[in-house]
C-alpha cells in the first residue's frame, strides 16, 4: 500500500499523467480534450517529430489511439474505392498491420473529401472502421478480421453523393453507427462481437455529418444525435427515442457534452442545460461570435473555443458566453481544435498549427508550427504525443 | 525391419493425410465465409473460419483467391483480408509468395477480376518487374483496375519510344479505355497526333430522346408516383401536366459530346416537377446492358416497362455514371424511359435539371446497338453517341 502511494506521489511530482486513450472522433466522448500532459508546444517539418509513417491514401478521418496502438483509415485509387485500415505502434511508428477492402458502395463525394472521412472508433478489443461507402469492418488489435458488413449491400438505397463522414461511437457495449443519408436513413446499434443489428432506428432522409454524443444518466446511456431537423436522444440499449429537441439542429460540426451542459453549434455556439428528459428549451446563452463551420467547438479550461472554416478563432467564457476574444488565424480549417496540457491546438488545412494558451483570457498564441503537409483531419492526443494524419502520412509529434 | 516398414508406412500415410485434412478445413472455412449474407447473417461462423484460413498460411492462399467472386463483394472483402493476412505473415516469416502460381492466377480469366487483381498486386509487391511482363496482357481486361494500369503503362511506353505507329497505338488505347479521365486524355492525345476520337460514340451516349414534361410533383412523393409515361412503350400519348397543361412527347437531341440534356432549356426551369425521356434502342440480339445515368436530381430508369434502378437524391453533385440500372435488351426494339425529378430548392447551386444517359456493358464499353431517331422527318437507326455533323443546337426551348 505504501509502495503504491509512493509510486503515485512520484508520478504526480514528475508531472506524469496516466496515459489516456483517444478512442474516437475528437477523443473521449467527442470532447476534443485529453487529460494528457507534457505535450509539445513547438515543432517543425523536421523538428520535434517522433516519427512519421507514410500512408497509402488520403482521408479527413482522424487517427485514434488505444493503449500503444494507433489506428487510421485511408482511401485510395483512381475511383477512391480502395479502403485501408492501418495499425501502428504509437512509440515507434512501426506499422503493425494493414488491411484493405474494396468499396461496395458509391464513392461519390465532394472532391475535398474521401471515403476515409469517418473516424474509426477503438477499444481494448480492437477497432471499428466505417467508410463513406458504407463498408464497416471490425478488427482485433492484431489485425484479425472479426466481422465485416457492406451496409449498402444490406440497404441499397443508402446515398449521399456529397460523401459520408459521420463517425461511429461505442456506447453501453454497442457499436453505434450513424447513417443519416438521402436514402434509407438510420441510426443503428450493432453487436461488437458479430456485427449484427441490435436495433436500427429510422432517421429523416437528410444528409448529415455529425457524430453522436453519449451521456449516461443513472443507469441509462443516451445517444444524442444532432441533425438538420433537430437533436434526438436514443436509449443506447433499446434504440427507443427518449426525447427530441428541435432547437438542436446541426449537420456538420458536432457539439460537446460537459457534465449537465450541452454546447451545440447552433446560432454560433449555444449552451443548453441537459435535464432528466431533454434539453431546457431556452439556452443559457448563445454566442454568435463563436462561429464554427467544418470544425466543432471545444470546451476547455472554463472556456469555449470555436474555429471557423475561414480561420477565425473565437473564445468565450463557458459559464456566461461572454466573448473574450476573436482573432484571425492563418488559412482555412477543416479539422477541429483539440486541447490538453493547458493548450489549444488549431491545425489548419495546410498543416500549420497555432498553439494557444488555454488559460489566458486574451489571444495568446504560444507557437505556429508548420508541418508542411496538407491535412483535413482533427489531431489525436495520447501517450504524450499529438498524432496528425495528413494527406500523405501519419505523424507523431512529441519526444 | 517389419516394425520399421510399418513406421515408414504409417508416417507416409500421416504425411499424405495432412494436406487432405488441411484442404478439407480450408474448404469448410471458405464455405462458412461464403455463407455470409445480409445484415451480418453468418458472421458467427465466418469469424472463426477466417482465422482458420489465415492459420493455414500459404496453403490457403490460392484457394482463398479462387473463392472470391465479383458477384458477391461482401464475401470478397472477407476473403480479401484473409489473403492479405496470409501474405503479410509469409513476408514477416521471410518466405516468398508462390510467384508462379500467382502469375498464372492473375492471367487466368476464369477467376474473378477482384481476385486476379489482388493476385497481381501481391506478385508485383514481391517482384516489381512483373508489372511490365503482365500489364500488356491486361489491356482489354474485364477488371477495370488491371485495364487502367495496362493503358497507363502502354501510354508511358508509347510516349517514351515515339513509335512511328503512334497514332494507331493511341487509337488502340483509346478503344480500350473505360475511365473518363483516361478516355479524355487519350482523346486529346489522339487529336494532337492527327487522329480523331469520338468521345460520344465511345461512351455510347443516348443523343436523341423524346421528352415529356413537366408533370406536377409538389412534394417528395413525386419520386414514387407513377406518372403515365413511366410505362410508355411509344410516344403516342398525351398527358395533363403542371398547371393543367396538355403535354405531348417532343423530340429532342443533344450535340454535347458528353451527351448532356439540359431540361431547364428544353422544357423550362420548373420546380417541383417531373419529366420523362424515352429512347428506342434496337438490338440485333439479346444483350445484357447497363443503363448508366448522370443527374443532379432524382432519377428512375425503366427498360421495357420494368424499373431497373432509382435514386432519390437532389443537388448533391453530379457523378459520372452515378446511377446504374442493369437489365437485358431483347432482340429488336427496346424502350428505355428515364424519369428525372426536380425539387423546389431555391439556392443558386440547386437549379440544375439535366441528365446524361448511356448504354454499355459491365466494363463501360458502348453497346453495339442503335438508337431509333427522327432525322429530317424520317426515322433512322444510328449508333449510340451519334451527333449529326450539321446538327443545330437543340438545347433551346422552342
Explain briefly what this protein structure is.
The complex is a heterodimer of chains A (399) and B (398). Chain A is mainly beta and 399 residues long.
What pattern of helices and strands is seen along the backbone of chain B?
HHHHHHHHHHHEEEEEHEEEEEEEEE
Strand fraction of chain A equals 35-45%
Low-confidence residue ranges of chain B: 6-19, 393-398
Radius of gyration of chain A: 20 Å
Instruction: Report on the biggest sheet of chain A.
Output: 5 strands, antiparallel
Total number of helices of chain B: 12
List keywords for this structure.
heterodimer; A: 399 residues; mainly beta; Methylamine Dehydrogenase, Chain H; 2 helices; 4% helix; globular; disordered N terminus; B: 398 residues; alpha+beta; Jelly Rolls; eight-stranded antiparallel beta sheet; 38% helix; disordered C terminus
Amino acid at each position: 500500500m505504501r509502495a503504491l502511494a509512493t509510486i503515485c506521489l512520484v508520478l504526480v511530482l514528475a508531472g506524469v499523467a496516466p496515459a489516456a486513450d483517444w478512442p474516437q472522433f475528437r477523443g473521449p466522448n467527442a470532447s476534443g480534450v485529453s487529460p494528457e500532459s507534457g505535450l509539445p508546444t513547438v515543432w517543425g517539418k523536421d523538428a520535434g517529430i517522433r516519427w512519421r509513417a507514410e500512408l497509402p491514401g488520403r482521408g479527413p478521418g482522424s487517427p485514434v489511439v488505444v493503449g500503444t496502438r494507433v489506428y487510421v483509415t485511408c482511401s485510395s485509387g483512381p475511383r477512391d474505392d480502395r479502403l485501408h485500415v492501418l495499425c501502428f505502434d504509437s512509440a515507434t511508428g512501426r506499422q503493425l498491420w494493414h488491411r484493405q477492402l474494396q468499396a461496395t458502395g458509391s464513392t461519390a463525394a465532394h472532391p475535398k473529401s474521401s471515403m476515409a472521412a469517418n473516424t474509426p472508433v477503438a477499444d481494448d478489443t480492437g477497432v471499428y472502421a466505417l467508410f463513406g461507402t458504407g463498408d464497416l469492418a471490425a478488427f482485433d488489435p492484431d489485425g484479425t478480421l472479426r466481422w465485416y458488413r457492406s451496409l449498402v449491400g444490406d440497404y441499397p438505397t443508402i446515398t449521399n453523393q456529397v460523401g459520408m463522414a459521420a463517425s461511429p461511437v461505442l456506447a453501453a457495449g454497442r457499436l453505434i453507427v450513424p447513417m443519416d443519408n438521402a436514402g434509407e436513413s438510420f441510426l443503428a446499434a450493432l453487436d461488437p462481437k458479430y456485427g449484427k443489428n441490435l436495433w436500427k432506428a429510422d432517421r429523416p432522409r437528410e444528409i448529415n455529418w455529425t457524430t453522436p454524443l453519449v451521456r449516461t444518466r443513472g443507469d441509462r446511456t443516451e445517444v444524442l444525435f444532432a441533425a438538420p431537423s433537430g437533436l434526438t436522444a436514443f436509449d443506447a440499449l433499446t434504440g427507443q427515442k427518449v426525447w427530441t429537441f428541435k432547437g438542436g439542429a446541426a449537420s456538420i460540426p458536432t457539439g460537446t457534452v460537459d457534465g449537465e451542459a450541452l454546447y451545440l453549434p447552433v446560432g454560433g455556439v449555444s449552451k443548453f442545460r441537459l435535464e432528466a428528459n431533454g434539453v431546457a428549451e431556452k439556452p443559457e446563452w448563445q454566442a454568435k461570435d463563436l462561429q464554427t463551420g467544418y470544425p466543432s467547438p471545444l470546451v476547455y479550461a472554463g472556456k469555449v473555443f470555436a474555429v471557423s472554416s475561414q480561420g477565425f478563432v473565437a473564445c468565450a467564457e463557458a459559464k456566461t458566453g461572454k466573448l473574450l476574444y476573436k482573432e484571425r488565424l492563418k488559412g482555412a480549417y477543416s479539422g477541429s481544435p483539440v486541447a490538453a496540457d493547458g493548450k489549444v491546438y488549431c491545425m489548419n488545412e495546410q498543416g500549420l498549427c497555432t498553439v494557444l494558451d488555454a488559460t489566458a483570457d486574451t489571444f495568446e498564441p504560444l507557437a505556429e508550427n508548420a508541418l508542411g503537409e496538407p491535412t483535413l483531419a482533427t489531431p489525436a492526443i495520447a501517450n504524450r504525443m499529438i498524432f496528425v494524419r495528413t494527406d500523405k502520412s501519419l505523424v507523431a509529434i512529441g519526444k | 525391419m517389419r516394425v520399421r516398414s510399418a513406421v515408414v508406412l504409417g508416417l507416409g500415410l500421416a504425411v499424405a493425410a495432412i494436406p487432405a485434412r488441411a484442404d478439407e478445413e480450408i474448404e469448410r472455412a471458405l464455405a462458412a465465409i461464403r455463407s455470409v449474407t445480409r445484415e451480418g447473417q453468418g458472421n458467427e461462423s465466418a469469424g472463426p473460419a477466417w482465422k482458420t484460413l489465415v492459420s493455414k498460411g500459404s496453403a490457403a492462399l490460392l484457394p482463398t483467391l479462387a473463392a472470391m467472386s465479383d458477384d458477391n463483394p461482401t464475401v470478397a472483402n472477407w476473403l480479401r483480408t484473409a489473403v492479405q493476412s496470409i501474405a503479410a505473415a509469409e513476408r514477416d516469416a521471410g518466405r516468398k509468395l508462390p510467384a508462379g502460381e500467382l502469375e498464372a492466377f492473375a492471367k487466368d480469366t476464369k477467376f474473378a477480376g477482384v481476385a486476379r487483381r489482388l493476385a497481381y498486386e501481391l506478385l508485383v509487391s514481391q517482384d516489381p518487374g512483373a508489372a511490365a511482363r503482365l500489364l500488356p496482357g491486361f489491356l482489354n481486361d474485364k477488371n477495370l483496375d488491371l485495364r487502367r494500369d495496362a493503358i497507363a503503362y502502354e501510354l508511358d511506353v508509347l510516349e517514351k519510344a515515339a513509335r512511328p505507329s503512334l497514332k494507331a497505338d493511341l487509337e488502340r488505347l483509346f478503344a480500350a479505355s473505360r475511365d473518363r479521365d483516361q478516355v479524355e486524355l487519350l482523346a486529346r492525345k489522339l487529336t494532337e497526333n492527327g487522329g480523331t476520337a469520338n468521345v460520344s460514340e465511345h461512351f455510347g451516349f443516348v443523343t436523341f430522346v423524346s421528352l415529356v414534361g413537366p408533370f406536377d410533383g409538389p412534394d417528395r412523393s413525386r419520386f414514387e408516383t407513377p406518372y403515365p409515361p413511366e410505362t410508355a412503350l411509344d410516344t403516342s400519348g398525351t398527358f395533363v401536366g403542371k398547371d393543367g397543361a396538355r403535354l405531348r412527347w417532343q423530340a429532342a437531341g443533344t450535340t454535347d459530346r458528353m451527351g448532356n440534356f439540359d431540361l431547364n432549356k428544353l422544357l423550362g426551369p420548373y420546380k417541383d416537377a417531373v419529366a420523362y425521356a424515352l429512347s428506342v434502342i434496337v438490338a440485333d440480339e439479346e444483350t445484357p446492358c447497363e443503363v448508366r445515368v448522370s443527374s443532379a436530381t432524382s432519377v428512375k430508369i425503366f427498360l421495357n416497362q420494368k424499373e431497373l434502378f432509382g435514386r432519390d437524391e437532389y443537388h448533391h453533385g453530379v457523378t459520372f455514371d452515378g446511377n446504374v440500372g442493369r437489365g437485358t435488351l431483347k432482340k429488336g426494339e427496346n424502350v428505355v424511359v428515364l424519369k428525372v425529378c426536380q425539387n423546389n430548392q431555391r439556392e443558386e447551386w440547386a437549379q440544375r435539371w439535366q441528365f446524361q444517359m448511356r448504354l454499355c456493358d459491365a466494363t463501360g464499353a458502348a453497346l453495339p446497338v442503335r438508337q431509333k431517331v427522327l432525322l429530317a422527318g424520317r426515322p433512322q437507326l444510328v449508333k449510340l453517341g451519334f451527333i449529326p455533323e450539321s446538327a443545330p443546337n437543340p438545347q433551346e426551348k422552342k
